[in-house]
Each structure stands twice: as C-alpha cells, then as structure tokens.
From TrEMBL:
It is a multi-pass membrane protein. The chain crosses the membrane at residues 55-76, 83-103, 109-134, 146-168, 174-192, 204-224, 230-251, 271-292, 304-324, 336-362, 368-392, 404-425, 431-453. The keyword Nucleotide-binding does not apply. Residues 18-455 form the Major facilitator superfamily (MFS) profile domain. The lineage of its organism: Bacteria, Pseudomonadati, Pseudomonadota, Alphaproteobacteria, Hyphomicrobiales. This is Drug resistance transporter, EmrB/QacA subfamily. The keyword Transmembrane applies. PROSITE patterns: MFS, SUGAR_TRANSPORT_1. Gene3D superfamilies: MFS general substrate transporter like domains (1.20.1250.20), Multidrug resistance protein D (1.20.1720.10). It comes from the Bacteria. It comes from Neorhizobium galegae bv. orientalis str. HAMBI 540.
Amino acid sequence: MDRPSKTSQARARQPHAALATLCLAVITAQLDTSVVNLALDPIGKDLDATVSQLQWVVDAYNLVYAVLLLTGGLLADLAGRRRILISGALVFGIASIGCAIAPTAPVLIAARALTGVGAALLLPASLSIIRVIYPDQQARQRALGIWAGCNGLALAIGPTLGGLLIHAFGWRSVFYVVVPFSLVGAVSARATIEESADPAGRSFDITGQVLAILSLAAVTLAAIESPHSTISLTAAFGVTGFVLFGLFLAVEHRQGQAALVPLTMFRSRSFAGAMAGTTAMTFGMYGTLFLFPLATQSLGRLDATSTGLALLPMALSFVLVSPFSDAVVQRFGQRMTIALGLGTIGIGNGILSVAFLLDLFMMSEIGLLLTGIGMGLATGPLTAVAVSAVGSNRGGTAGALINVARMVGATIGVAALGAIFAAVAGAENGFFAAMIVGALVQVMGAAVALSTIGR
C-alpha cells in the first residue's frame, strides 16, 4: 500500500483550511445568483432584450443547475471530489467571463446555462468533501453550520455589492467580479484539499442519468413557465416529468447499489426527513424573497434600494445564527433544532403576513428577522442529517440530493406562492394569503422532522 505523502498528511491535518476553500466556493456560486436579478433592467436596455429573454437569463442557470446536480454528485464520487470541485470553479469562472462579454441576449442566456453547469459540479462536491474531511459528526455539524452561513453571507452582500458595481461600472461588472473568486477557489482547492473518490462497484448509469435529467427538466420547466403559459401546457410538462420520474425509479430499483441514486438511501427515515424538511424550508424562504420585494414595490411602499435594505434582517440573521446552530444541536439534538428552525420560519411568515396587511413596517422586519433566524437554525442541521445518514462513499450523491431538494422547494415555492399572490384580489390580501400558506408548509415540515429524524 502506498504511504501518503507529507503534502497529503499536511492537508489531512488542516481541515479548516479546506473548509475555508469550500466556503469560498459556495460564496462564489451564491453571489452570482444574488446579484444577477439587480442587473436585469440595464441588461434589457443595453442588449435590447425582451422580457422573456430576461427571464431566461435567470432561469437558464436555474434549469441547468437543477437537472445536472445528480450528475455532478455522482462524478464527484467516481472521478474525484477535488477534481470535480476545481472543474466546477473553472467552468463557473469561464462562463462568467462569457456573461460579461456577451454581445447579445441569446449569447448571455447560453453563458448563464454554462454557469449552471459549473454550479452543479461545484456545490455537491463541496458537501461531499466536508463529509470526508470531518468524519466526526459533531465537527461535521459545526463545519456545515459555517458552510450554510456562507449562503446567507452571499445573500446579504450580493444585492449591496451588485448595486454599487452596476452604478459605478455597469451591468457587466457583476459577472466580472465572480471571476477572481472562482480562480482563487480553484487554486486554493489544489493546495488545501486532498483528493478522494469511491468508484468501487458503481457506474455512470447512463439510463438513470438521462431519465433524471429529463424528469427534473420537465418539472422545473413546468414551475418556471407556469406564470406565463396555459394551464394545459404547464400540466403537460408536469405530467411528463412525473411519468419520467416513475421510469427513473424503476430503472434505479433494477440497478440496485450501482444506481445513480440507490433507493436504499431513502430507507433511512432521517435522510428522507431531511429531504422533506429542506424542501419545506426553501419553499417558504424563496417564496418570501420573491414576493416581499414584488408586493412592496407594487404598492409603492419602498423603492428598490430601500426594499433591499429591508431584507437585510433576514439575510444577516441567517449569517449570524448558522455558525452557532451546532451549539443548539448539542443542547437539543438535531431533530428538535430542525423542528425549531422550521417552526420559527413559519412564525416569521405568519407575522409578516399580518404586518404587511396592516402596513406595519417594524412588525414586518420582525417577521423577516425570525425567518432568517429559522433558516440559520435549520439549514446546517438538515444538511448534516442528509450527508451523515449515508456513508462517505455516497457523499457526492447525498450532497446532490439535498441541493435538488433545495431547488425543488425553491422553484415550487416561488411558483405556488406567486400564483396565490396573483389569484387573490389586492396585493395586500394576495401577500397575506401566500405567506399564510408558506407558514403552514413550515409547520408541516417541522412535524415531518419530529416524526422522521432520529434523536
């Protein structure tokens, strides 16, 4: 057996340096996502883009990212987690340059789709590496709390940074700014992370890959296009997605442990509960982030800049609470911490609904603050349960699946709560109804966590 080199031994003894690299990776991906919405108006004017094209500047990333997550997770386990992380960072950086120099809207949309490829490689690999470098569950829980906090950090600084860049240098600068982060992340990963892979007894499972991509694409398209398409077309996308998903399950069952997603993973009640809890959490979180600015500005209560500042309590509390979620877990356990987090989001959504209806600004801020606190409590433990419920050889797949749950919850949340908002007469009443539904989903998620996740 080959003895590990001094370099690899040094890397193994410095997991915190590796964690810093992984946090940089997640900040890179989420920073891009959080700033692009601010650039849509100047992009439309500069490139003479239609409303539909501007929507696809956002959705091309979301769609490609969602459908390739499982592929990215499998490649991390098979080909090497560090290798796939570095590849994702480089693809992300190159695609961001493509976005920045795009001469037309179609070129920009294509570059955004390539950015989704980079993110689909980057994020599952980062979670898988945390599973490997922190074999101790308590240390892993702490690391995942920090990793989750970086999502909130990007959410907090993204809009402010994006606004300053657009004002000073134009919309192309919001894509250029991501490039140094990507390059530094790739170089740092080479220096701080030891390579690991678990290809034994597994294959690329091409049939499973194709069915997973097509089914996720159909369901995601149904959610993306539902506000703009006929009911029959949306239903056709949805039904096609579920039929393909049924075929995917049949193929994966036949493949057994060599499958893209071994169905035995879901025999773990904790893993299944973490998936359900994550879907519920992002349903309410992204629904709130989508509807609050829309409703506030449509009523003329705040302008765009003030709305961004109003959302800061939600983002900052997410950042500040996430690293300390491990301390709450040590006191109350994962199950209770997750239920407490989801319940707090539900309370925040409920307060926000009433405050918005009565036009009470400070009460709305309290609701947003509680929503952020709940996200900070729940995100790290939910991720920890998912990646800890399987062996390290399935770390990439578990990391991919928990991100699929995040994307599914976010996409359905925006579509469903947006539809409720549009269907109820009056922006105040529509927002109230949508946030009540969001709160109920959080309560159901908390109940699922209490009944499925182990003590």
